[in-house]
Design goal:
four-stranded mixed beta sheet; six-stranded mixed beta sheet; alpha+beta; binds flavin-adenine dinucleotide; about 15% strand
């Protein structure tokens, strides 16, 4: 089975024995939980769209490992065309879900590990590349969703992993056995782990010789013994329990993050992709971060498309759409959004072949892409809030709208242009609220800031890759300076 249907995907997640905790309770059937279900629907869309003939080219690819048709989320990029299609696929999914669809982290881990395991093997004569290819083939052939787990809790940010007061602040090997290793620690902010079949664990920072036990990468099933997940709250999450799809803004789709604890988890030898070769931790981090920073030039742009559309509809419903400043604000939003897309496409088009044969983005341009993503969605949200008006945060509930006594007053006084119902006006404002301040703001705003690394992480890479020396030479040549 190279491609699962959406329904098959849901049932495959239902069969997992995941240990998920929320509001102090173990969630027995996460697939049917009203708070969690929208996040599963978003991942499902990555399966549903792959089944549709009109999206085949962007959503599927020919596997380099088996020659079979596979979902692009499992693909090892073979060309710059693959890198470009990845970004287009992500924009499409952002447009269809208006949320984080969670499957990108695994895809980005896949491509980072493919080249890093190859280069580690070349140096150390290890078997990581073969281990990884076997795992990748299994994932592709079964069309699995994989979580990419990089971020450790990190404790004191000023100290290296081995120097922390609590040795578990970075995930590490606690026991070495002939058949594998036992690991302990945690990964924070894990996007979509509760909707994933497997988790790929990677180190979170470059490491030195004292951090050998922390330089560990592997993959295990998400329901392995010792793994449990504690769901992160989102602003307005319990609105989903109130039974009003209107008040939620986007009731069908969403994202989800969790703190994932690895409490003495066994990893068999054939699932290990790095184990003590500390100098390759940095390469893995840099490549994963590069691919993930490219990703944001697609996914956030798709969500931006929905938000811009919502702002334009709100302007129409308010009767303000003909005002020149409103038109100009919408133009600015489109300009910012397309600039992000341009960066995503540019770092893909300038991609190059790695020693292992897969393709990697231009790292400088991918970091510029993500640096812009830490800013532009905030400005797009600001403009959307400006256009929407204050009602996006002061509107009464759907229950009040339906109430016999107060409902008619809401109908009357919260109407915009006469041809549009008050309900429709409130619906579009709730969507803007959801994307700016509600559950989807986790994915559209704060994930834009910190996901794939906080802004300073990109500036460090831009400083490294910017080649100021060459630029100074150019200036001196033009100015006829010889020293
Ligand atoms: C919505 C969301 C989804 C995410 N999904 C995933 C995921 O799926 N997988 C995953 O692995 N990670 C994920 N992340 C984690 C993301 O990569 C981290 O949030 C990011 O790397 C920042 O780490 P932090 O949150 O621990 O912030 P911190 O490290 O606490 O950073 C806070 C501030 O301190 C600064 N800082 C931190 N350390 C230092 C230092 N040593 N010196 C100077 N300044 C420092 C930072 O630059 C930043 O300004 C997600 C994050 C979010 C918000």
């Amino acid at each position: 089975m190279a491609l699962m249907t959406g329904e098959q995907y849901i049932e495959s997640i239902r069969k997992l024995n995941l240990q998920i905790y929320m509001f102090g309770k173990k969630i027995e059937t996460p697939v049917d939980d009203p708070i969690l279900r929208p996040s599963l629907n978003s991942v499902r869309m990555t399966y549903d769209l792959a089944q549709m003939p009109e999206y085949q080219d962007v959503m599927t690819a020919t596997s380099a490992l088996t020659g079979n048709r596979i979902n692009r989320f499992c693909h090892i990029h073979q060309s710059t065309d693959d890198l470009i299609k990845k970004v287009k696929m992500q924009r499409l999914l952002g447009q269809q879900t208006a949320s984080c669809f969670q499957r990108c982290v695994g895809m980005d881990a896949f491509n980072a590990l493919y080249s890093t395991t190859y280069e580690t093997d070349q140096e150390y004569k290890t078997d990581y590349f073969e281990n990884f290819k076997r795992f990748a083939t299994y994932v592709e052939e079964n069309d699995l969703t994989v979580d990419g787990a990089m971020t450790d809790p990190k404790g004191d940010r000023g100290l290296a992993p081995h120097a922390q007061a609590d040795a578990d602040m970075y995930l590490h090997v606690v026991e070495r056995r002939p058949d594998g290793v036992v690991v302990r620690g945690a990964k924070a902010h894990q996007t979509g782990i509760i909707n994933s079949h497997e988790v790929i664990v990677m180190p979170t920072i470059a490491m030195g010789p004292d951090d050998k036990d922390y330089a560990i990468s592997f993959a295990v099933p998400t329901d392995s013994e010792g793994i449990f997940m504690i769901i992160g709250r989102q602003s307005c999450d319990t609105r989903k329990l109130e039974g009003s799809d209107m008040d939620v803004g986007n009731s069908e789709f969403g994202g989800v993050e969790a703190l994932v604890v690895f409490d003495n988890v066994f990893v068999p030898n054939d699932r290990i992709f790095l184990n003590g070769e500390a100098e390759f931790a940095g390469m893995m981090v840099e490549r994963f971060a590069g691919y993930h920073r490219q990703s944001y030039g697609g996914c956030k742009v798709g969500v931006g498309d929905v938000l811009i559309g919502a702002a334009a509809v709100a302007a129409e419903y308010n009767g303000a759409d003909k005002a020149s400043h409103v038109k100009d604000k919408l133009i600015e939003m489109v300009h910012l959004n397309e600039t992000l897309f341009a960066c995503g496409i540019a770092c893909s088009a300038e991609g190059t072949k790695t020693k292992s044969g897969n393709y990697i983005i231009d790292l400088l341009l991918a970091n510029v892409c993500k640096q812009n993503v830490t800013r532009f969605p905030y400005e797009i949200v600001r403009l959307a809030e400006d256009i929407a008006g204050g009602l996006m945060v002061t509107a009464p509930s759907e229950k009040d709208l339906r109430d016999e006594k107060v409902g008619p007053y809401i109908e009357k006084y919260l109407k915009g242009v006469s041809r549009v119902s008050t309900e429709n006006r409130l619906r579009i404002l709730r969507l803007i609220e959801n994307l700016s301040l509600g559950t989807a703001a986790v994915g559209y705003r704060t994930e834009s800031m910190h996901g794939a690394g906080s802004p300073q992480a990109q500036r460090i890479m831009i400083a490294r890759q910017g080649n100021l020396g060459a630029k100074k030479k150019l200036a001196k040549k033009i100015a006829h300076i010889s020293e």
